[in-house]
Specification:
This protein is of the alpha/beta class. The chain has helices at about 50-65, 70-95, 130-140, 150-155, 165-175, 210-220, 230-235, 240-245, 275-295, 315-325, 340-355, 360-365; strands spanning about 10-20, 25-30, 35-45, 105-115, 125-130, 145, 180-185, 185-195, 205-210, 305, 330, 375.
């Protein structure tokens, strides 16, 4: 990538991301001044140990039930922190990096609860577990975590947080039309970026389930973690009556910005179906939620760029190419690393946090003004 001029010297950051799919930790290196990308470095994905995933699932249940002091949550915090520390160590060893070469780690943590504010009368709540303090102590590197907390405290949605990084990448494409970046992880979210790339005019929001419902269905039915390559959905039939009923969900009509929890949508409408038909219907539902979101945008995009695991599902991609009225491309076709974009993003946000630059904007999380955020944990002296 071309190095751009800057008023501040670039910093080197490691970004960490573990999404709601609970498949593991993505690690990526980035050098940036916090405004212009200088260089994207190596990346690595490290699977969660099986018991870490089990403890996180138990912690999610406890959080959803309001058992905030549950032993399951304390155990999950320890396991998530350890898994991320090991992922950083493995990444640094593999790429022959020393701690002196890394200025900061951006540690998103593992989301176990996300409850955006219902109205302006009280803030919502977002909970990403993992200890940045312990990570800084054990690795001897400064760590920024708690990226979403300030936004929530100021009445924002607390998500999505990738738009400012999406805007940077889209600016480099030098398009003459608005571009939508579509991130399909456990939840699907959209960043609409105007032709001039101005972050103050971005619009971003969660538009519905991403891979989350299909993953949950396939694990329930088969024990597998996902519908790899859309194999089950490809063999199944979409039940239009169920699909139409699911599309009545009031979230889909809400004006953005808006965000949701991975567990706000349920697989219950398809529980009487066979494995293949259930996968086909849930995959079609994810695509239909994305298609419905176009009506909520300031202007129809001239192009879609798909990032995240959903881009690997050919059935979902075929739905999107048929339903969306603009070209749909995968992140790799744009020269991006679609599977590591969120890890890169939190490296970028850590640098922006250190430099007191905004992480969220009125059009992305419904706050009144651009806000910085993040908590710095300094390495031992």
């Amino acid at each position: 990538m071309t190095i751009m001029t800057s008023h501040s010297a670039p910093l080197t950051a490691i970004g960490l991301m573990s999404g709601t799919s609970l498949d593991g930790v993505d690690v990526a290196l980035l050098r940036s001044d916090g405004e212009n990308l200088a260089e994207a470095g190596p990346a690595l994905s490290v699977p969660y140990p099986r018991m870490t995933k089990v403890w996180v699932q138990r912690a999610i249940r406890a959080a959803l039930e309001g058992r905030n002091e549950a032993n399951e949550i304390a155990k999950a915090i320890d396991d998530v922190t350890s898994a991320h520390i090991r992922a950083v160590q493995k990444f640094m060893e593999k790429n022959h990096l020393t701690r002196k070469e890394i200025d900061v780690i951006g540690f998103h943590g593992q989301t176990i609860l996300h409850r955006p504010p219902v109205d302006r009368s009280a803030p919502g709540r977002t909970w990403q577990i993992g200890s940045g303090r312990i990570m800084a102590e054990e690795l001897g590197i400064n760590v920024v975590d708690s990226f979403r907390d300030n936004d929530i405290a100021q009445g924002g949605e607390g998500a999505p947080f990738a738009p400012i990084y999406h805007a940077l990448l889209v600016r480099k494409l030098e398009r003459k039309h608005p571009v939508c970046v579509l991130n399909i992880g456990g939840v699907a979210n959209i960043t609409w970026i105007p032709a001039n790339g101005d972050p103050l005019h971005m619009v971003a929001f969660d538009c519905g389930p991403g891979n989350g419902l299909v993953d949950e269905w396939i694990e329930l039915q088969t024990g597998e973690q996902m519908d790899r390559d859309g194999t089950y959905a490809k063999s199944g039939k979409v039940h239009d009556d169920i699909l139409r009923m699911m599309l009545l969900n009031p979230f889909l009509r809400r004006r953005p910005p808006k965000s949701l929890d991975r567990y706000d949508f349920k697989i219950s409408p398809v529980t009487e179906l066979g494995t293949e038909d259930g996968a086909a219907t849930l995959t079609a539902f994810t695509a239909a939620c994305i298609e419905k979101s176009v009506a909520l945008l300031p202007q129809a995009p001239g192009e879609w760029v798909v990032v995240g695991g959903g881009g690997h599902n050919p059935v979902l991609m075929a739905h999107l190419e048929e339903m969306l009225e603009a070209p749909v491309m995968l992140a790799d076709e744009a020269g991006w690393r679609g599977d590591f974009l969120e890890a890169e993003c939190f490296a970028y946000l850590a640098i922006r946090s250190l430099r007191k630059l905004p992480l969220s904007y009125p059009g992305t999380t419904r706050i009144h003004r651009p806000l910085t955020g993040g908590v710095l944990h300094t390495k031992p002296v």
